[in-house]
Structures
1.
Amino acid sequence: MAGILAAVLAGLSACSPPDRSHSPADSTAAATAIRVVDDIGRAVVLAAPARRVISLIPAQTEVILRLAGPDVLVARTRWDTDSALASLPSVGNALTPSVEWLAALRPDLVIAWPDAQSRDVVKRLDDVGIPVYASRVESVADVRTMIRRLGVLLGRTSAADSLDGAISAELESVRRLVAGRPERSVLYLLNAEPPMAAGPGTYVDELIRMAGGRNVFDDLRQLWPQVALEEIIARQPDVIIRPSDRALDDPLAGLAGRPGWRELDAVRHGRVHAVDPDLYNRPGPRVGAAAHGLAQRIHAGGLPAGRDAASHDATARGVPGRGGLPPAGSGR
Amino acid sequence: MTGPVFDTKGLVFRYPATLRDAVAGIDLRVNQGEFTALLGPNGSGKSTLLRMLLGALRPTCGEVLFRGRPAGEWPRDELARQVGVVAQAEEIAFPITVREFVAMGRYPHLGAWRREGPADRAAILGAMDRCGVADLGQRSVMELSGGERQRARLARALAQEPRILVLDEPTAALDIAHEMSLFELLADLVDDGVTVVVVTHNINIAARYARRLVLLDGGRIVVEGPPSRVLEKSTLETVYQWPVRIRLEDGAPQVVPEKRDAAEE
Amino acid sequence: MDMTLRRSALRLGGRAVFTVVAALAAITVGAAGLPAPEVIAVLTGGGDATARTIVLELRLPRVVLALVAGGGLAVAGAVFQALLRNPLAEPYVLGVAGGAAVGAVAAITLGLAAVPGLVPAAALAGAGGAIVLVVRIAARAGRVLDTRILLLAGVVVGAFFNAVILLLLTLADVESFRSAVFWMMGSLAPANWRAVALLALYVVPALVVLVALARPLNLLAIGDETALFLGARVHRVKLVAYFVASLLVAAAVSVCGVIGFIGLIVPHAVRLAWGSDHRLLLPASLLGGGAFLLLADTAARTMAAPAELPVGVITALLGVPLFVLLLRRSPGL
């Protein structure tokens, strides 16, 4: 149970079947008001571009920083440790924020998790008349839609266009990089004990495909299935990717010695890589770097160590926060 | 009040999923003012009979009339204003004081809402006094000794101011003094006109106090009547499957079970 | 009796005053850090728009919800303890919370959560299903509402619902999973005036019925058959107490999720202090449960401000030491 909790909370922003449709760019530039439809179909209407924004989702905060700079933000979460935001009051773990605290900051826009509308922040902020944009970002396409919509809400559409263009170019370069290379099977191992893997429909599954790999468990029906070790051995993934908060000196740590795991070719031949979980569990504006880093690892030895990939680890490790993850995420 | 208090005709009870009737056809009549003791070996149907008399079990066959009306049809509070019961076992889930415990006997008179009046208080204090628990009022029932607790239970039944008192093995946990004083009290109550029905294994004490004994075996009445008629050597030896001797003490027959080696001679 | 009555009235009055003072104090504290004079200004009709929103729309309904839900849970706990003759009984022991959780989690995972009011409605329906199911299983097993069989039926149904919940969670997407887990943790955050009104609409008549059953419930504490011989209509009392108390729990759970510990500890605290007479125990549990949940929720929303802690954590962290203290001060009970 704790394992499932940890896994799913770790995957906070990933997931959901890929066929979930989002209506593209609903922003209509009305004469007087800014109007955007958010990811749960609510219309968000602003009289003017947002100037006092609270984002409860780190990847969205990153986008706001890139589009409008730190001045439009009036609060941060524990996971946003960018130095530009250090002086802002922190709402802490943004999963259960105090609504009255948010209201007291008089924001003109709050970016929040949709949380299935059961008892969420969205509804309660709505109740007290504070504009909320419910943001659900689960795929690369979602990231790009989110960037454009935030651009509209912030009155920074051109900055949004250029950020989107940059992402598009980065992804294109990764595509060229892996074109014509043999497809490698990849196990994205969220947790080793019990083994828990990324299933189809997750953000990282999409990244694996972009990076010229194939998710070894892409035929399962669950997003983060718990899998049997013998099934992993039977499928013999070419590469194993382990998201890890701690910089693992040895990505094999804890695997190579264990019975079963040492039967894996990937373990025996050292094709196990540790990655920054933020970059792969949380869809965000650094999707290009994420895809490039993954390609680098999947086709290790077969690719020139490009600039992007070389810098990735450093960037990744230095990245503030862990995607709004509660401490449970570190429990593995 | 005329007519019998309890009157049963062809009373039969079988517990679900058992092969034998626990009570297998009993015709019993208890008149007002009688002191009746139900005797019989373990499993002879005494307690089952008692629970049917009190309307707690519905007979499989036959019926129990309480004052001419089927016991099961009486409203419980009306029944409880007439019949006080000291049941066999009772486990108290939460600590309450002896005073509160005895005061529960006023429930059939007060219902859910009415407050205790002077008459209720008099009944409670009188009952506590009569059973010797007047000094224990503020003690928790859970702290009482077996004897004290049994007296508190009797006080509760007396607080009901019943015309009929039914007791199921009331002295099972008591020493001689407590047992005797309880039966003395029952005899006093009978003198006051209260009908007493008591189930007991103590044949000798029953023979000295009860004017009428009912001996049960296998769910049937073997014999009933005054002690001199019921406590007969061959009947008892058949029923209890044990050799006994009968002696007379103060005019009451007393049963002395034989030791094994004496019986073999 | 008159003295006992006067003493009971004094005790309840004292509790009521304490509860009101606690409620007023709770309104003045919060993550937003409004100064007390501003809160008072709002309460007397002044204050600026933001302060008014914070006090009147966010804090006040939450405080009232804590009082109503906490009181309801504590009363239900006391009733279940009497009904099952078991001091370990608590409001969720008969599977009501499990049923409510299955309803809510099913609604969330099926994506129906966006329909306003549907999750509480589904929780209520699930709880209702559990209530009926438990009674039917208990009745089928023979003697209707036999205490042990009722307890067994409740535990079995609860275990079954837990399995269903785990199954639903396994199949859920992340967002539903997170919603469902938060729902099950219990929180007073969703408080609004409509929820408070709906809950109070049920809790108040339920309390009247249960307090009316106080004397028969006293009798149940010494055994079903003894209660019968003392003139209580035991079967009816148990049935009514079971349904009314279960619905009380169902109503509270459907609004606030599963908040533990109140229903177990508050009735015991009252018993230790003032005895087991339900005529005093039930109203005192109402006030005590309300004040306790209010205290816990105020801690939950201020201790880690501006984040909020799960209130169930606080009820346990606060409740255990308080209870141990009470136990030590009341030897022999």
Note: The interface with chain B takes residues 1, 5, 81-82, 85-87, 142, 212-216, 218-219, 221-223, 225-226, 228-234, 271, 275-277, 332-333 of chain C (CB under 8 Å).
2.
Amino acid sequence: MDVEDLLREGMERFTEEVPVPRGLVHKAARARRRRMTIRAAMAAGTAAVTAAAVIAVTGAGTGAGTGGVTNARTTAYVIGRVENALAAENFVIQGQATGADAFSVHGHRVRDSNEPTSSWTYRNLWRTEEFTGISCGHARPNGVCTNHGGSEPYVAQGTARIGGRLLSVYVTYYNHRYSLSPRGHFHLKACSKTAQLGLGGPAVTIPDWPAFIKAILGCQHATVTGHARISGVQTIVISGLIDIPLSKGYARMVKEPRVRVRYTLDVDSATYLPVRIYSSTETYGGAAGPTVSAYVTNVRWLPPTKANIAKALVTIPPATSG
Amino acid sequence: MVRAQRIEDLEQLLAQRGQALLRTAVLLTGSIEAGEDLLQSAIERLLRQGRRLEGDPEGYLRRTLSNLATDGYRRQGRWRRRLLILQAEADAPADATAEVDLRDALMRLLVQLPPQQRTVLVLRYWEQLSGAETAKLLGCSEDAVKSAASRGLRLLRELAGSWQYAGAHQQT
């Protein structure tokens, strides 16, 4: 069959379930009134347009498909501002992530804390450090927890300046070893499965994550869902849900045909820079039953002072062998 | 009073022609939700310009749908990346459902096409408009319509070609 015929047939099939639109005229009239209210507020200088739009959207309790135009436009506006803010930022970014896994063992739900992770990023410099966590405590040279002694650095990964060259480095503190490699070019294809799966993990383990977040926000999964106050900062909440079918090989390996990734970005309503990121990956079946792996990453945007930039480099501790 | 009458007229128009308009909007955007949003935007514009109701409101809505789809989505600039991904991720069909799969893949690709190409293909192959009618509706030259249609179809054919090749390759 010719492509043109297939296209016609496809269009027919694609839209055959389309319902008769109901109430669209009234929704449009309401949306128009709302927009006029926002414009009036802007003209009067009584409120920031984004806050007004966000409040209008959340106050109306709109959802996908019904929230319609105002929500879509608010989302587009906010995401545009976030993208610009991320593109223009010149900060040392500090991230602190904590997380937990929930799964089933012999029918019992188990919740297990993930190791806290911290990161420092400045342009092409980055350092991610994973800690053992309080429950693990001091780690033996084989990496096994002693369950006492408090949390300590476990592994570090990132860039290091060695002999004037910028290299990639991986340090394992528990056995006092490190390895060097040429600095790779980090590039995640926007909206790719890899990028979407990465989004379900702690945001700090991704080098150049502002570029990563920016790329993900361009994938149309995100929606402005409200506002929140975090550590005294008024934020706009952007949420997204992605259902990701896994490739056959990967699905076979993890015994899951698909995963669901949820994320929430709280962006400072003044600077539009993210201050907190929630991310989770859910699976539905497999031996451990439904699993949820969730992370919270708190983000600070620090001035690029010498001291702060230095924190974005991995330092190889003394008495560590390569 | 006039406004209430205008809304009532529009309700009546949508009761008769709403589904056809929504189907076009869905094709222009790729999903029912986005299609509803697009149609709602077009209605909002029509409400803003009430006098046009006396003329050809359906024609105005169709023009607005096409223009909004072209303008709004052009600004997003996302299609290029998504198109590449879609091409890279297209899986080859392995059985007799290949044609159905290809048809679905074509629809997915249609949604990812640059806005003008997608709009032109929807107007030409869904709305059955001629090249001249499409050009008039979009406010561009007939040559621009031909060029957009041929570029859009070429991309769809490329997908179909690689699909068939991949299918044949997998079966060997």
Note: Chain B is about 80% helix and 0% strand.
3.
Amino acid sequence: MKSAEEICASCRLLGRTLPWAFLVAAALVSFSPLGPAWQRGAAYLAALALLLLAGSYLLARLTPGRRKF
Amino acid sequence: MAISRSFNNPAAASESYMASDVRAERERSLRGLGEGGPPKCSKVSSRRRASHRLTPQRFQRLRFVYCLPVDEVSPPGAGALATKITLRSCLLKVFAAAGVAFLALAASSDNLVKYLFGPGYLWIVGGSILAALWAYESYCREDVHEER
């Protein structure tokens, strides 16, 4: 069975890189003295990051495979 | 014939010697006939690994030459630089992911509460647990091998 990364090349970016990038970006914007529009965007960015993480986790959980521990 | 070829081509000689050495070691290990005692060195030194001249192929060959036991060598199909999954590395990654998520969510929890919904601690605790679960699924599975 093909893994998700073999099926779509951008899955790795979508499931691994983007959530953490969004999470860190949201934290940085929250620390910065930017305006309320930016702060609102940061909140949505953090929520989107958690959604992507949840989706990636569910996909990995549902994919058959051995767990080491 | 092999001797004459090796004599004419030193590179081929070292390759064939290495291949036979690796093969013998693998056969010994498969039969459970290890030479006794732990291998003399368990991993390639970090300095050698960091060397820019090391290609993945050379690194993999070094792992063999530097007497890694066969069961610690990455399975076929794994990336050349794939590392063995140990409980320690797995726990480290899980806690690191949870820590990063905790810090990031703690920083942006005010915005989340103000512009979205729910209490801040729910975002922080829920997000940290989610990140830890994600890291477990991503880094602690035997069928997932990635080049790092």
Note: The radius of gyration of chain A is 15 Å.
4.
Amino acid sequence: MSENEIVARNEQPGELVHQLPVAAPAVDIYENDAEILLHADMPGVLKDDISVNIDNGKMLLSGTRRLQPGGSAGWRELTDVEFRRTFAVPQSIDVNKVHAELKDGVLRLHLPKSESAKPRRIEIKAG
Amino acid sequence: MITRLQDINQILGAMDLFRSQMNSMFNNFDRSYSGGRDWSIAETYPRTNLSDMGDNLELIAEVPGVFKEDLQVKIQGNYLEISGTRKPDNPEGYTVHRTERATASFSRSFTLPYEVDAGKVEATLKDGLLTMSLPKSEAAKPRQISIQ
């Protein structure tokens, strides 16, 4: 075995990782008979950098902020960051109808309940 | 023998990855972004970045969910004050499960490193970020000095 083989070690796929700091976004969660509504603060995140994955009762919400670099720093309190948070989602959510809007750095995620899960008024018939 | 070494390298690489993932998990475990750094008291004022772009200073402030009308910026010389209110946006007819997003008024003032020309300041609000371009006053601008 030559010495060269030990020194020239190729990069392995598992090492090619760029780590962005991860922070949990602050959220408000509301519910009514028709849907669950989630508001999440994601300042500076563009629409295309947000992903919502619902799988097996878990929802992963992730949004990445990339600030335009420039100038010399006076002070830095905000950085590029990945807003990431996982929620447990009840089975009664109709996954196909989930939709969201992003405005002023706030994501509003609507999780409609499926028809069978909506509360129903039962008529009682006089016998 | 060579293939075995590569196997070991691969395992070591995977362990490195695992270690860094574990580290970041302990660092970030469900730490709410609004909750401030580490375990300190929650911040109630917006975070900002200040950059020196040469002829002007650029200040970026994080103000998600704040409307243009609810933000005030005051500038005098090298003193800058940002104040505003975040109005509650809770919808009608919903029961509340969780409220982490603070709805309060905030105010923050800065001493800028240079005097700025208050008349030429431009401010834009986009995607929850307030970006202000603050041109330095003439006396504070960088100047090329020719050597005699």
Note: Residues 34 and 40 of chain B are 11 Å apart (CA to CA).
